[in-house]
Every structure is written in structure tokens, then in C-alpha cells.
Automatic annotation (TrEMBL):
Entry's Gene Ontology BP terms: response to arsenic-containing substance
NCBIfam families cross-referenced by the UniProt entry: MSMEG_6209_Nter (NF046112)
Any Pfam family hit: Phosphatase-like_N
The entry's keywords: Arsenical resistance
Organism: Pseudonocardia hydrocarbonoxydans
UniProt-recorded name of the protein: Putative arsenate reductase ArsC
Entry superkingdom: Bacteria
Membrane-spanning intervals of the chain: none
Domain Phosphotyrosine protein phosphatase I: 87-212
SUPFAM superfamilies named in the record: Phosphotyrosine protein phosphatases I
Length: 218
């Protein structure tokens, strides 16, 4: 994750209240695993990450809370504080706006609660590609509520498999993970018709991955 830029110095009253409320909710979930300082540090650094490129400022506290929750879940796995035995797959691409979002959408759709999918980007965009959203909607999968985000060390370390799609040397490498590169066209700038073949190839590969992981597809 990039270095904090302390965008919280210019918080509105509503945003400050929303962040305090988010910290309480996160504490309710993770207080048995982490101290208040750790929880708030993850929340605030997540906020700073999104604040530098946010399009709609009103959603920043919610995005920060969602990302901090994911990061804290990952840290709990890394530190052995969570033992659900469910495999975690991390899908990575450059902007986390197209390929990795579609892959996560298919994986979650087919795996249900039998596995977990996360996604991230080396240079996260400002929103998910609308053509990718439309292409996935054609398959009955809604990714419109997703958002581009970076990866962090704890998220990569918590993953059992890391699937990369075009992030090149920027993709993280940690020992003991399963790594696989999927060579796929970048849907950036494509219309829905051009995205469909990419979408279909991602679906095929996700189903193969689920089979290899021993996760029955729904």
C-alpha cells in the first residue's frame, strides 16, 4: 500500500463521524483478535489510500471500512487467529477494474461460501469498468458494488493462490503461495461486445481453478 497522505486532516464533520462509527463496528468484530490501535491504523490507512483518487467523497468512510475489514481478516489468517480452513484466492491485475473484478465475480458466484476470492491492482483505477459490469450482468452476476483497490502484504500472505493478469513485475511474490499468470486482453477501453470473449475465458479458467482447488462449483 502507498504511504499515508493524511487526507483525514480535512475531514468534514459527517465524514469524521462516519469513520468513528466504522471504527466501532470493526472493533465489535475484531476486538478479540486485535487491539484498538491496530484496528484504527488499518481503517485510517485504508481511508488515506482511497482519498487520493476518490470520485465520490461521501463513500470514502464506507470504502475504508470495507477494505480495512478485508485486511484485518487477512491479518487474522496470517497470524493464525482465524482457522476456518476455507481456501482464499487473490486475483490481481493492473487497475483492478476489469479482469480481476470479473474473475472475483465468477469465483464468488460458483464457490459460494466454500472459498473466498479477493482482488487488487498495482495501479488501482477510480471505478470498475462499466463494460465489464455490463458483461457480467449478462451472466446474472452483479459486480457494480465493487471498487478498485490495491493489494497489501497481509492480503497476499493470507492467500492460498495468487492469480495475476498483466501486472508484470509489480505483482507481489511471497514464498509458499501458488502463483499462476493468466494472459488475457485488458478490457480497458473496450465496449461490451469486445469484453464478452475475455469474460468467457475468465469464466472457463475460474471453473478449472475451482476444480484444481477441490472446491465444487455451485
Amino acid at each position: 500500500m502507498s504511504a499515508p497522505t493524511h487526507h483525514r486532516d480535512n475531514l468534514s464533520i459527517d465524514q469524521a463521524l462516519a469513520l468513528r462509527t466504522a471504527a466501532v463496528r470493526l472493533s465489535d468484530t475484531f476486538r478479540d483478535m486485535f487491539g484498538t490501535e491496530t484496528i484504527e491504523r488499518f481503517l485510517h490507512s485504508s481511508y488515506d489510500e482511497f482519498a487520493g483518487r476518490a470520485v465520490v467523497l461521501n463513500y470514502l468512510p464506507l470504502l475504508a471500512e470495507r477494505f480495512a475489514r478485508q485486511r484485518l481478516k487477512a491479518l487474522a489468517r496470517v497470524e493464525g487467529k482465524a482457522h476456518d480452513g476455507i481456501p482464499v484466492v487473490l486475483f490481481l491485475c493492473t487497475h483492478n477494474a476489469g479482469r480481476s473484478q470479473m474473475a472475483m465475480g465468477f469465483f464468488t458466484h460458483y464457490a459460494g461460501d466454500r472459498a473466498v476470492a479477493w482482488s487488487g491492482g498495482s495501479e488501482p483505477g477510480s471505478r470498475v469498468n462499466p463494460a465489464a459490469v455490463a458483461a457480467m450482468a449478462e451472466r446474472g452476476i452483479d459486480i457494480s458494488g465493487e471498487y478498485p483497490k490495491p493489494w497489501t502484504d497481509e492480503i497476499v500472505r493470507a492467500a492460498d493462490a495468487v492469480i495475476t493478469m498483466g501486472c508484470g513485475d509489480a505483482c507481489p511474490v511471497f514464498p509458499g503461495r501458488r502463483y499462476e499468470e493468466w494472459v488475457l486482453d485488458d478490457p480497458a477501453g473496450m465496449d461490451v461486445a469486445a469484453v464478452r470473449p475475455v469474460r468467457d475465458e475468465i469464466e472457463r479458467r475460474v471453473r478449472v481453478l475451482l476444480d484444481e482447488l477441490g472446491v465444487p462449483a455451485a
